Amino acid sequence: MEEFFHKLKSGEQQRVVVYGTSLTAGGEWAKAMNRWFDAHYPHLVTFINSGGPGENSDWGVANLETKVLAHHPDLVFIEFSYNDAHEKFEMPLERGAENLDHMVNAVRSRNPGTSIVLQTMNVGWDAPNGNRSASVRPHLQEFNDNYRRYAAAHGIPLLDHSLHWKKLKEDDAQLFQSYVPDGSHPTPDASLAVTWPPIETFLSACHKSVTQTS
């Protein structure tokens, strides 16, 4: 991340791609990130949201060229574990891990200087709409563990949002359910209240570090 922010500090144009499921494609946190870059580095960041609603990391691998690499990103955020865990995909844990490794290596093979940040997203619940958003993801934590292990092994930043959402679900189920009314997708206000703050803290720390060392 240091090189990315140093380039911004020096006035170089940079490209940011966020890549993942509908939790990225429609996430209010992504819009907030775009606004954050506009506020701190006006006219220097091209922001691309390449989320794929309803998709998992098989789609992520298959569409990496057009959705990510073709944009020549300098910073990429990746999340697919929430949908990798959906039983409809019948995805082995090992393939989820292999897909993540493939995406990271492909990004870095194209440009070794690209910064990468991994994310786990919110947990779900079985809302009355019949989607059974939690029940159809019985191994969500194990798929999230793919991201935790990979981040630790490769020294890649991980924003582990699922921990915050899991705690909220356990501590205040009523508020959690109002925040995620359909079982999977946080409302815009909820995304800003729970998912966005750790991202903002992370970006602000990177920004501050570069500012202090300049």
- CATH domain fold name: Rossmann fold
* CATH class designation: Alpha Beta
Largest sheet: 5 strands, parallel
The helix-and-strand class reads alpha/beta
N- to C-terminal separation? 15 Å
The CATH homologous superfamily name equals SGNH hydrolase
Order of helices and strands: HEHHEHHEHHEHEHHH
Q: In angstroms, what is the radius of gyration? A: 17 Å
Please provide the count of β strands: 5
Helix count, per DSSP? 11
User: What is the overall pLDDT average?
Assistant: 97
Strand content: 5-15%
Specify the overall morphology.
Answer: globular
Topology:
Layout: H1 2-9, E1 14-20, H2 22-25, H3 28-40, E2 45-49, H4 57-62, H5 64-67, E3 75-79, H6 81-84, H7 93-110, E4 115-120, H8 140-154, E5 158-160, H9 161-171, H10 173-179, H11 188-213
Protein described:
The protein has 214 residues and is of the alpha/beta class. Helices cover 54% and strands 12% of the residues. The protein has a single domain (2-213), classed as Rossmann fold, CATH 3.40.50.1110. The chain has eleven helices and five strands, in the order H-E-H-H-E-H-H-E-H-H-E-H-E-H-H-H. A five-stranded parallel β-sheet has the order 2-1-3-4-5, sandwiched between helices. Helix 8 (140-154) links the parallel strand 4 and strand 5 (158-160). The two termini are 15 Å apart.
